[in-house]
Design goal:
Blueprint (H helix, E strand, L loop, with lengths): L1 E3 L6 H14 L4 E5 L14 H11 L5 E4 L1 H5 L4 H11 L7 E4 H5 L7 H7 L2 E4 L5 H5 L2 H5 L21 E3 L9 H31 L3
Parallel strand pairs: 1-2, 2-3, 4-5, 5-6
Length: 208
Amino acid sequence: MLGGSFNPAHEGHIALAKVALHRLGLDEVWLLVSPGNPLKPRRGMATLAERFASCVALIDDARLRPTAIEARLHTRYTIDTLRALRRRFPRVCFVWLMGADSLESFTRWRFWLEITRTVPFAVVPRPGYNRQALASRSALRLRPFRIPLRSAQGLACMAPPAWVFLPAPQKDISATSIRNARRNRRHRQKTTGRQGRTAQAAHDEDPG
């Protein structure tokens, strides 16, 4: 399970999901499109339908499954989602996937230690976050439960707490940069449109 706002989804999400499929020997990766991340502001957040559609548009592997199941479960916090999914799918071996940026801020999550006791998890790298994430309070607290990379294929079947850091090629792309680029593009289009209208008006008024 790779949870997130996906505001919007991008190639980096898909690449990391595929790394997890291969390195962890998973059958599927669920892209859990959050109805609303409690740690992120609502301003600038696209609708759930728009964010879900951005995931669907990028899928090129049937093993990657976008889902908005948290909206149906009426859960907002990861711990509540995990508990509900384990009750609903008692025979499934779940693994939680998170970026290095999330590991760094993990202690801010609701009942974060309980999350680690509920399912094993894997951390995937994010440019600019990896070193401080692995030196963070959460990583130091969980150091005794970190498994070597050579054992990653068995992570899904391990009793939690258990986690692994998965080295992977890193794409310097983020949802924030995509939104900023779109905002700048719209601004340039509006500015160009205004300039065009002004020039046309001047031409129309020119008696020559």
